[in-house]
């Protein structure tokens, strides 16, 4: 198993090994010390020492007894969920979504406020720090138990530490979100794109083990793909892995802002769906679509709701988008030999079941490995909070399981 090799490579006395054992307890739900010995390959004495340290730190508790195999019944261990908390923030021009989770990734508090809009980055960060204080106070959570803040935002460009929150917010281009928020909040901050956060959230909250590699396809106004390998995010040479929105599906297709042609984003993203919807006679008036850039999310939600209710024209629009998304997903599955893909993000909130059906049909029927193993496609829940909850999970992972950290270039 992947967990065994990770622990053996790290060594029994390091902080990283302690994090690896904590991760085994997380993914197991409940587990005995003897089972940890089998899973990790460490000695019983090493596991006893590490578990004792985790209990003393308040991260792990003993919870009842397992079944006897002939001797003394084993004591079971599990995470102590209320011992630590993390905050996830989905940074977006439409709205800010805060998610406070416990150690197990369970949502304990949520807040949605106005987005970045045209507000200056410094003013937004100052507002975030104030809103965060009010949220924690309202939940009666001691700041000392908060391990950090995870920030999710679309379109990272990490060259020269620049971070881009939106194509429509140029002021954010060279604004160091992490440094500013860490200074104003007094808490450690980690920053990733929406898709990466959603993927880590699925890993942490879903109690997946480090032996389960998977991808999370995230759709908001565009597309991203977070890939988890051996419990860590795949990053690539410049930490920009997962740009599935710029996978070319039609070599002579419409030009994309990235400079290429026929990208998934130009063929299937919400903007394209709305553009096609505006060309259907009478549909804009029927659904109240404006077709304006500022209303893309609102308009796409309206089309998605109508499609979910069986509106013929809207079903055709969503299925047209879903076919392209399915082909892109199929290519990722074939390239990486995955057995699981999650669909997450607000773009799947209303018409998710239609996308799920079309993608499952394509992947199930055409995946190169279909005769060797099944490829599971799962609609994540809740779709709208995936980035914020995932950002909180990222903060937990970075703080408590250092063996899973992968530094950026």
TrEMBL record:
<dbReference type="InterPro" id="IPR000600">
    <property type="entry name" value="ROK"/>
</dbReference>
<dbReference type="Pfam" id="PF00480">
    <property type="entry name" value="ROK"/>
</dbReference>
<dbReference type="GO" id="GO:0016301">
    <property type="term" value="F:kinase activity"/>
</dbReference>
<keyword id="KW-0418">Kinase</keyword>
<dbReference type="InterPro" id="IPR043129">
    <property type="entry name" value="ATPase_NBD"/>
</dbReference>
<comment type="similarity">
    <text>Belongs to the ROK (NagC/XylR) family.</text>
</comment>
<dbReference type="Pfam" id="PF13412">
    <property type="entry name" value="HTH_24"/>
</dbReference>
<dbReference type="InterPro" id="IPR036388">
    <property type="entry name" value="WH-like_DNA-bd_sf"/>
</dbReference>
<dbReference type="InterPro" id="IPR036390">
    <property type="entry name" value="WH_DNA-bd_sf"/>
</dbReference>
<keyword id="KW-0808">Transferase</keyword>
<dbReference type="InterPro" id="IPR011991">
    <property type="entry name" value="ArsR-like_HTH"/>
</dbReference>
<protein>
    <submittedName>
        <fullName>Sugar kinase</fullName>
    </submittedName>
</protein>
<dbReference type="InterPro" id="IPR049874">
    <property type="entry name" value="ROK_cs"/>
</dbReference>
